[in-house]
Amino acid sequence: MMPMEHTLQLGEILKDGMYPVESEGGDNWRILHGDTLKLVKAFQPGTFDAVITDPPYASGGTKQNERNRTTNQKYSSMSPEKALPDFDGDQKDQRSWTHWMAEWLYDVRKACKSGAPICLFIDWRQYPSMTDALQWAGWIWRGTAVWDKTNSRPQKGRFRQQTEFIIWGSNGPMPISRPVSCLPGVFRYGNPQNRVHVTEKPLQLMKDVVQICEPGGRILDPFAGAGTTILAAAQQGYQAVGIEVTDAYFQLGTERVREALKEEVDVQ
């Protein structure tokens, strides 16, 4: 892991006078509290070397009344008394979700360096819409990797829905000479135990995925959630910037990243 040299400052990444009301951070990481649609417009051009994120899928149902359920109702089987906080932005229909995706993806691209890779998690229901939005926003779609969750609820006479997808691309040409090794196309990790976010991804999965970025680069996660991508990036020696709109997850994510990195330093 590369040494942590300084606290990531807002002036390094945001235009003057466009700071969020609240942000938290430490050595080589920072999470901004606010709406992604607004905050992505505040970044200085060419700030990021990669975008890696798990946006709200607005999925979990084929009918609008099913999509309008809370995120816990759609994605969790926990009892109400044990349920994790719901997160914002997951009740859009498919057309509005696609438009929303294209809008922030367009502004994020302007904040990225030429050739910067982007990785977007999604399920099968919104896969076609996400590839449309990515290309409408000017990114080059380069392929799809697979997250094999290794297990799922069995359905008689049907294939198991045990995979999610990582749609990836780049901001224009992506030189083959980048100092990045060949990455796998399939990642096999079970869902994390003791999750703090309804749709949390495994930490080791994110440690693998962030390696699409050049060593020491700056990674943006516009939907930071529980801070898994931010933590994985920081632990792998990258700078990491996140955005989170939901109050509960802004607090949970920043606390989680800070405590995990502090424990790592204490051990060293």
From TrEMBL:
EC numbers, comma separated: 2.1.1.-
InterPro entries referenced in this protein's UniProt entry, alphabetically: DNA_methylase_N4/N6 (IPR002941), DNA_methylase_N6_adenine_CS (IPR002052), RM_Methyltransferase (IPR001091), SAM-dependent_MTases_sf (IPR029063)
GO cellular component, one term: cytoplasm
UniProt GO MF annotations: DNA binding; N-methyltransferase activity; site-specific DNA-methyltransferase (adenine-specific) activity
Keywords of this entry: Methyltransferase, Restriction system, Transferase
Origin superkingdom: Bacteria
CDD domains in UniProt: AdoMet_MTases (cd02440)
Entry protein name: Methyltransferase
Lineage: Bacteria, Bacillati, Bacillota, Clostridia, Lachnospirales
